[in-house]
Structures are given as structure tokens and as C-alpha cells.
Amino acid sequence: MRRLFSKSILILTTGCLLNGCSQGPLPLEVTLHQEYVCAFTNNPKKTNYPFDKKFIIFVAKADYTNGYKSTYEKEYSNFPLPIEEKDCVKIPLKAFEKNVAYDITLDIYKTFDTRICVVEHNNKLEIREPEPGETTCK
Fold first, then answer.
1. What distance in Å separates the CA atoms of residue 106 and residue 113, rounded to the nearest whole number?
2. pLDDT, tens digit, for every residue of 20-73?
């Protein structure tokens, strides 16, 4: 009986490790600046360097028919971790079409992501969160 219990624990532990014991991506914070979208984690407890001290930011149009296809990506090496807004990853505004939903993914040691639209409202750009399942913002 003891051996069966040990095997069960081993299987559960292995399954958890293979799945990363994660509950999916963590939320990514974004703010809009004059010429760029600023992405940061705002989560010091969960933001750590991987062993190679590199991380990548990806931007992709939200597209349910053609799948995920990155429209912008950049790798950072030995760059300050984007935990606070002052150390954010700057994504050029030209990477975004107005009123189109984009997924932004920051892949560090953990994955952080968000879905946004850059919209023009009263002659001013702002960030909005699209409705679930939508690929555009109004």
C-alpha cells in the first residue's frame, strides 16, 4: 500500500511540474504614452529573470480564424525587468492599428498577457479592453 501511495504522489508531482503548476498567464499592465504603449507586470513577487536573463515581448492581432501570428516582437537581454512603469517595455504605437484588438504577451520566467485596442476618442488616443470574443473595439 505504501508503494502505491508513493507512486501516486510521484505521478501527481510530475503532472504538476509538467504543467508548470500554473493557472495560466498572469495579467500584464499597459499604459499609453505619446509614441508608445508601455507594458509592465506590476507584480514583483512573480517577475523573475530566467537563467539567460532574456525576455521577449510579442504583439499579435486577435484573430480567431487564422490563429496566433506575431505582428511585433522584440527580445531583451540584460534589460531591467519591466515590473514598474518606469522600467516598462516600450512598444511603438505604429505596431497597432486603431480599433483592432491585440494580444500583448510578455514572456519572462512566467508569462504575462493582456488584450487591448488603441482607439481614438475625442481626437485623443486611449487604450480600451475589447469585449470577450471580439477582434475590434468601437
1. 6
2. 455 789 999 999 999 999 999 999 988 888 888 899 999 999 987 887 789 999
Shortest CA distance to 28 belongs to which of 137, 99, 138, 129? 129
| Location of C-alpha cell 520566467 | 109
Distance CA 135, CA 133 (A): 7
Query: How big is the CA angle at 29 (ends 28 and 35), to the nearest 5 degrees?
Result: 120
Q: Cβ(27)–Cβ(114) under 8 Å?
A: yes
Beta bridge partners of residue 114, listed in sequence order? 104
What is the model's pTM? 0.80
pLDDT in tens, 89-127: 999 999 999 999 999 999 998 999 999 999 998 989 999
100, 61 contact by CB (below 8 A): yes
- Between CA 119 and CA 81 the distance in angstroms is 28
Half-sphere exposure (CA, 13 Å, Cβ side) for 14? 6
In SS3 terms, 24-56 reads as: CCEECEEEECCCEEEEECCCCCCCCCCCCCEEE
